[in-house]
UniProtKB/TrEMBL annotation, chain A:
Pfam families: Ribosomal_L50 (PF10501). Signal peptide: none annotated. Residues 1-27, 348-372, 587-606 are annotated as: Disordered. Belongs to the mitochondrion-specific ribosomal protein mL50 family. Residues 10-27 have a biased composition (Low complexity). This is Large ribosomal subunit protein mL50. It comes from Clohesyomyces aquaticus. GO terms for cellular component: mitochondrion; ribonucleoprotein complex; ribosome. Keywords: Mitochondrion, Ribonucleoprotein, Ribosomal protein. InterPro entries: Ribosomal_m50.
Automatic annotation (TrEMBL), chain B:
It comes from Clohesyomyces aquaticus. One of its GO terms (cellular component) is mitochondrial large ribosomal subunit. Gene3D superfamilies: Glutaredoxin. Coiled coil: none annotated. This is Large ribosomal subunit protein mL43. SUPFAM superfamilies: Thioredoxin-like (SSF52833). Belongs to the mitochondrion-specific ribosomal protein mL43 family. Residues 32-105 form the Ribosomal protein/NADH dehydrogenase domain. Keywords: Mitochondrion, Ribonucleoprotein, Ribosomal protein. GO terms for biological process: mitochondrial translation.
Length: 637, 137
């Protein structure tokens, strides 16, 4: 094939390769004259034709040359086969014979193995992975040395689990020392005893349930569950109202402070928000338990932190109302009378443009004197509950009270305006409030709307800690009210549900009827034949022929194990099979025994004969005699 | 000669003298796990007792059929049985199906083209081309 030359490039010299390489019929004598001398000139810097590379010497150069060509062809044209590549492979100059290295192609370099080049596989002689001295044994472990070491550590930590039960300081130090020594023996890199202690505790944390977030035993029963639910709700709302993020709380204490939480009253307001009323001491007690131990409750900043706008939408319509109602109610119930002074001062809230609360257009007559007078009186009332706190606290609360009074006056005015527009029955101060049962309370708060995701999450987190039950995300998402949330909690505890036959087994209507039969298991064809009486006949026939009653013809031990309910299907058959196998084995043993006996007899007889031969009583017979005897007996040959 | 009476036997008809319900047994199968059995489970818990009491002549069995759709199977005196799948049906719909099976006989479902089904012969006789008005042969 004729090689098609490259078009000339502007950078090329005037006397281009194309004109030279192309075999042209010289048209004019002058041209002919020109060409021979021009041929000698080295031109066409970018030409890859062999002529202009100036190398046409030995074999080696040819190959190099081909390699160079091929390399550039590949770069420019891609990996497609160039024209003229299908050449004779036996030709030493063919491009096929050029190795990849010479072409300059990338070559895969196999990585060095971890074992090294000198590694030779040796089969292990023992089962030991670790020697008695702690050195590596003969049997290799898959997973590597790191895993092996980790496993050793875990085993040691497991052995020292009782560390947490040691009450004596000395005993605990002794345990740490032992652990440190063991770690050193196993060459686990632990530098100090303090590090050893940390390792040990880390291991114990993995194993023990004491520090687990959720308790090991999950709570059951609607009563305890409701108590836990109530507690979670109270704590979460109390924290959020006091400006703490309830979902980020660690809730370290799991001890029941039932008394304080019992004092908290939960109610539902008309627009579906939760109203919590509590005394100051109860609140302090609860917060002291929830908040981290380092934080002294007396030093807590009682001013409300900036509440989220989302929360504010829920709570703003009711806050003022809440305060007034609380004041009224606290006044009425002698036990729970608390000074408004001790309540945290309410920030003057700016007008919320985004909220939907109704703003009364006309200002009705303000009936301030009587309620205001009551409210005015409360700051002077001393706290009934004894407060074991320093005087500074009282001073602080006193100063706060004056601010609180002013704020409360404005709040009262607002609420009375609203109250005038609506019809609300204010509780008579003389009536004592009856104690609410759990059921009543539950009914009350059932319809409390849960719109804030943060609070929902915080409640579910606290519930996990108290009950051990996880609320799944779809349940959390679909619960729009407290009632739903509690129902889902109860549903979680009752999973997995009882099968239907268990549920209706005790129900009298169905079980009492004579024409109704309830089966606990799936009915099989045999279950139809058994009551008819046909099964007896079938069973007899099968046993007669040695066939299996249930299942396939070849019941090996393995197939029995693989079946889902071997007991139910193979109950009869296993016994029969074992019996047959036993019989077969016995028969086999019998045969073997008989054979052995025969052999022994024969051997004895032969020995006997040998003895007699030795003694000379008998002499070995000749072949002819043997033949004669055989004929006599009639043995065929 | 007087007209001899036809010798006939009394033809028994179910319902003329006594009535025997053709359905002798109803099997209710459900699944504890599958969602298509929700209606059936509801029906068994709430309506079946009443149905069984109203039909003391029918033998009723309740048994699980795991990982299958719920089925009501009716067994009849003529030996036939009719299974009806009640997957994803509500309690009331299942009650309808149960009643349907209870009222059925074991016969195969046939389309009836004629307005009257009777054992009696026709009163006016079967038509023939020779016996009619204005026929002249």
């Amino acid at each position: 094939m004729r090689r098609i030359s490259r078009p000339t490039r502007p950078i090329d010299s005037l006397l281009s390769s194309s004109s030279l390489s192309r075999p042209r019929i010289p048209s004019s004598p002058c041209r002919v004259a020109l060409t021979p001398c021009c041929r000698l000139l080295p031109t066409a810097a970018f030409s890859t034709s062999p002529r202009h590379n100036g190398i046409l010497d030995g074999k080696k150069d040819k190959r190099k040359d081909q390699a160079f060509i091929r390399k550039w062809q590949k770069r420019l044209l891609g990996d497609s086969e160039p024209i003229g590549s299908r050449v004779d492979p036996y030709d030493p100059s063919s491009p096929i014979r050029i190795s990849a290295e010479e072409l300059g192609e990338e070559q895969e370099v196999v990585g060095d193995s971890e074992l090294g080049e000198d590694y030779e596989y040796e089969p292990a002689s023992t089962w030991d992975t670790v020697d008695s001295e702690g050195n590596k044994g003969t049997l290799e472990i898959i997973g590597g040395e790191l895993w092996q070491r980790k496993m050793q550590e875990w085993h040691i930590q497991e052995r020292h689990l009782n560390y947490m039960t040691l009450k004596d300081e000395a005993e605990r130090n002794q345990a740490i020392r032992e652990w440190y020594r063991e770690a050193k023996e196993l060459k686990i890199p632990i530098e100090s005893r303090e590090e050893a202690r940390r390792w040990l505790l880390a291991g114990i944390a993995e194993w023990s349930d004491e520090d687990a977030f959720a308790p090991g035993d999950k709570m059951t029963g609607e009563g305890p569950l409701y108590a836990a639910f109530r507690r979670a709700v109270v704590e979460v709302h109390m924290l959020s109202q006091n400006g703490y993020d309830p979902s980020k709380m660690a809730y370290p204490s799991l001890e029941d402070n039932v008394a304080a939480i019992d004092c908290v009253r939960l109610e539902n307001t008309r627009n579906g928000t939760l109203r919590i009323s509590y005394t100051e001491s109860a609140r302090r007690e609860i917060l002291r338990d929830i908040l981290p131990a380092q934080e002294d409750p007396t030093k807590i900043d009682w001013t409300l932190a900036e509440v989220d706008s989302a929360q504010e939408v829920d709570e703003v319509p009711d806050d003022a109302l809440e305060v007034v109602d609380e004041a009224v109610k606290m006044e009425s119930s002698g036990k729970k009378a608390a000074s408004a002074a001790a309540k945290p001062p309410i920030k003057a809230k700016p007008f919320d443009f985004m909220s939907n609360r109704p703003v009364p257009r006309t200002k009705p007559a303000v009936e301030s004197p009587p309620p205001a007078a009551e409210v005015m009186e409360t700051p002077t009332v001393v706290e009934l509950e004894p407060v074991p706190s320093p005087a500074a606290e009282l001073e602080a609360s006193a100063t706060a009270s004056s601010e609180a009074v002013a704020a409360m006056q404005t709040a009262v005015r607002d609420t009375i305006e609203r109250l005038a527009a609506q019809s609300i029955t204010v509780q008579k101060p003389t009536d004592p409030e009856p104690a609410m049962t759990a059921r009543q309370e539950r009914e009350l708060i059932e319809h409390t709307k849960l719109r804030d995701w943060n609070i929902k999450f915080a409640i579910s987190k606290r519930l996990l800690q108290l009950t051990g039950h996880r609320m799944s995300d779809p349940f959390l998402g679909s619960s729009s009210t407290l009632g739903f949330l509690f129902a889902h909690l109860v549903a979680t505890t009752s999973y997995p549900a009882k099968p239907l036959h268990e549920q209706i087994a005790n129900s009298t209507p169905l079980t009492a009827l004579p024409n109704v039969t309830i089966h606990a298991k799936r009915l099989t064809p045999l279950d139809k034949e058994k009551p008819l009486g046909r099964f007896k006949v079938i069973e007899y026939a099968l046993r007669e022929r040695g066939l299996p009653l249930y299942g396939s013809l070849d019941p090996t031990e393995d197939s029995v194990v693989k079946r889902k309910n071997p007991q139910s299907l193979w109950k009869d058959h296993i016994g029969l099979y074992k019996k047959f196998m036993k019989q077969a084995e016995e028969a086999r043993e019998q045969i073997e025994r008989e054979e052995r006996e025969e052999e022994e007899e024969e051997e004895e007889w032969l020995r006997d004969i040998d003895e007699r031969v030795e003694e000379g009583e008998i002499r070995p017979g000749t072949a002819e005699e043997a033949e004669a005897v055989a004929k006599e007996i009639g043995v065929k040959k | 000669m007087p007209v001899a009476a036809l010798r006939t036997l009394a033809k028994p008809q179910n319902g003329v003298g006594a009535f025997i319900l053709q359905c002798k047994r109803l099997d209710f199968h459900y699944c504890d796990w599958a969602g298509s059995s929700r209606g059936m489970v509801d029906f068994i818990k709430r309506d079946l007792a009443k149905f069984a009491k109203q039909n003391p002549q029918i033998e009723i069995t309740i048994s699980p059929r795991p990982h299958r759709h719920p089925v009501i199977k009716g067994h009849y005196i003529n030996g036939m049985d009719k299974p009806v799948c009640v997957r994803n049906m509500a309690r009331a719909e299942i009650m309808e199906k149960a009643n349907l099976l209870r009222n059925a006989s074991g016969e195969k479902l046939k389309r009836v083209n004629k307005p009257v089904t009777s054992l009696n012969e026709s009163v006016r006789g079967i038509w023939s081309p020779f016996h009619g008005a204005k026929i002249q042969i």
